[in-house]
Amino acid sequence: MPSPPASSAELAERYRAEILAYLVRLLGDAHEAEDACQEALLRAHRAFDRLGADANCRAWLYRIATNTAVDAARRRARRAARTVDADVDGIPAAAAVSPEDREHLRAVARAVEALPPRQRGALMLRQFQGLGYAEIAASLGGNEAAARANVYQAIRKLRTALGDR
Amino acid sequence: MSKRDDELIAVVLGDARPSAELARWLATDEGRGELGAYRQALGVLDRVYRDVRVPEPRRTVYYCALRTPIGRVLVAATEAGLVRVSFRRTEAWFAKELRRRLGAEVVRSPARTADIVHQLRAYFAGERRTFDVRVDLSRLTPFHQRVLLAAASVPAGQVVSYGEIARRIGQPRGSRAVGQALGRNPIPIVIPCHRVVASGGKLGGYTGGLAIKKKLLRIEGAVAAAG
User: Fold this and answer.
1) Is A124 near chain B, with CB under 8 Å?
2) Which site among A28, A39, B8, B166 is 20 to 30 Å from A48 CA-CA?
3) The whole model's pTM is what?
């Protein structure tokens, strides 16, 4: 366990890269993610004094980042009618090898976009951010069983999106 | 959510080992198919979301203010070196200007600017005649950089004319352009554009005001030119 950061600046320096990647995964847009990241680090800076000495500051930062992303997504939804057709070219680096493969990528991306924020967050934290269920619970609220249930439900929806085999 | 799905997902994720009952089902065509479908779903998720394109971090500019005999002086530096010195401005104006001009995150940091602040204090106290800092001129045009570097080679206590700088950069007819380039010196004092004067003993101009140009030359002992 690394020593707790002495300042919010140190906290930001240590976790900025992974928080930014997480926000790209949540929001599906690099620039929006960058703005959200700056906002999240600012919120963390303001609340840093209230962070307990023995708190899991990484999970705490993920919680702030998730809330910031939810706010950003809400603002976006208000701004524009929601795009129904997930644009695989617009989000992360996916190169399809065949039309059928492309359809799979699109189906999964669409399913991810349709996930409720908590499930999407839990899924990304588990699969790409290296958090265990206890840390996911600390980040998103609720207990460990709820964190696990969120991850599993998300995965079930992805599987359903791929259809019958 | 069926219990079997939960169990299957736990196995696919590596959260649990299959029970004997699940293992038997996984040996059937249906079980194999479902296992394959979950693996494929996670595989596709991985391809779409693992290697996200993360934007390059915006560069950060650190700034600080200090009191000097010519009033408040503001300095700003990136990792690459000093980018701005300003005077006759407020801190708020300076921070906003940095954000607008450099598109950077702007952070007030006495620690990151301690070296240049220390050197400037010594300069104004008359204890230092040269600066030993890296400067970041990467955003300027090659001509602008040549003019500033030529001005930087004029030692304290001396002055040269705009025409002399023009000759030194190999553009003897360019003294007007030299004057304009010096007028847009982002790092005054440290790059001593105040040591460049008009021919015939006149001071020429100074973006920070002629009074400050005179004062700087007096601190450096170039009294004759300071008049």
Assistant:
1) yes
2) A28
3) 0.58
Which residue is listed with tokens 């940091």?
B109
For chain A, the distance separating the N- and C-terminal CA atoms, rounded to the nearest angstrom, is: 44
Instruction: Please report the pLDDT score of residue B42 as a whole number.
Output: 95
Find the closest chain B residue to A105 by CA distance.
B44
Six-digit token string for A7:
């300042």
| Alpha-carbon gap, residue A143 to A123, rounded angstroms | 15
ipTM of the complex: 0.85
Helix, coil or strand: residue B175: helix
Q: Are A25 and A128 in contact (CB under 8 A)?
A: yes
What is the pLDDT at residue A80? 61
Name the minimum distance, in Å, from the CA of A164 to any CA of chain B: 8
Give me the average pLDDT of each 10-residue run along chain B (227 residues). Answer: 86 93 94 94 91 74 93 93 93 88 83 94 94 89 92 94 93 90 94 92 84 92 59
Q: Tell whether A88 lies on the interface with B, counting CB pairs under 8 A.
A: yes
Pair A156, B45: CB distance under 8 Å: no
Whether B41 has its CB under 8 Å from any CB of chain A: the answer is: yes
